[in-house]
User: Which sequence fits this backbone?
């Protein structure tokens, strides 16, 4: 299969998934809402792609949610080339992906994050994952979340779940606080051995994320909460913010490759506190 066809298949899927997730959010809110949709371009003087980020705030269910799609291409800055697979011999790249972050009104509903991407340099690969960050402990929810991830991973390879779970646990960790960001999930990168199989897995992960966030929200949407619960949520969001600004690869990649700043930082919560 030609590379341009692979790129079209991947980017078209990411855009389709963006639209589908936004449709789900409309249905959950059950009222007339409007995303703030912004289309952007990477290059100012020449065509280097771009994307669209959609942000919705102050809903009854979602305090802030961002659903970002991008398809960009060009050359990596010199200081960045050595850190990207296949870019040390040729700085040209093509990349497309979707990133979703949900911050909820109800503190009993966890913050949820998902992204998948396809990156092309002299080598081409898929990456992505999902994780959730609860404010309050819910052992049943944790087990169900991880069981669901194991099921989707096992459909493709029995070794995926343990490998990608560990990768997620290691990645979403705040070393300066010696604590995890949330309860983990799966994280994968450099999937480049078989496009058809890897793309099928990436699509399955996206569909599974849709199912997971819908089920979690529907279960907890009417659960009562207190101002004390909300304060705990604000403190937890502070940890979330620290990770995204200090350690998140996607944030660094976007900012260092000329991505849209507001779209990149849409993952930050609307309100966070420290103490």
Assistant:
């Amino acid at each position: 299969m030609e590379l341009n066809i692979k790129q079209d298949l991947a980017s078209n899927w990411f855009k389709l998934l963006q639209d589908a997730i936004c449709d789900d959010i409309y249905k959950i809110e059950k009222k007339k809402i409007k995303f703030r949709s912004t289309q952007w371009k990477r290059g100012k003087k020449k065509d280097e792609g771009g994307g669209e980020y959609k942000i919705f705030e102050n809903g009854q269910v979602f305090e802030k949610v961002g659903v970002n799609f991008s398809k960009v291409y060009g050359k990596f800055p010199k200081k960045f080339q050595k850190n990207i697979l296949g870019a040390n011999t040729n700085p040209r790249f093509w990349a497309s992906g979707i990133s979703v972050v949900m911050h909820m009104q109800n503190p009993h509903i966890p913050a949820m994050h998902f992204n998948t991407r396809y990156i092309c340099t002299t080598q081409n690969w898929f990456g992505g994952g999902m994780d959730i960050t609860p404010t309050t402990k819910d052992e049943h929810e944790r087990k169900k979340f991880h069981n669901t991830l194991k099921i989707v991973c096992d459909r493709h390879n029995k070794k995926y779940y343990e490998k990608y779970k560990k990768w997620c646990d290691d990645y979403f960790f705040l070393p300066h606080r010696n604590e995890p960001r949330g309860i983990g999930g799966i994280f994968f990168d450099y999937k480049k051995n078989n496009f058809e199989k890897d793309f099928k897995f990436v699509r399955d992960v996206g569909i599974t994320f849709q199912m997971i966030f819908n089920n979690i929200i529907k279960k907890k949407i009417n659960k009562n909460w207190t101002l004390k619960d909300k304060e705990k949520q604000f403190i937890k969001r502070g940890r979330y913010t620290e990770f995204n600004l200090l350690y998140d690869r996607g944030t660094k990649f976007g900012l260092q490759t000329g991505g849209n700043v507001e779209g990149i930082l849409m993952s930050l919560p609307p309100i966070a506190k420290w103490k």
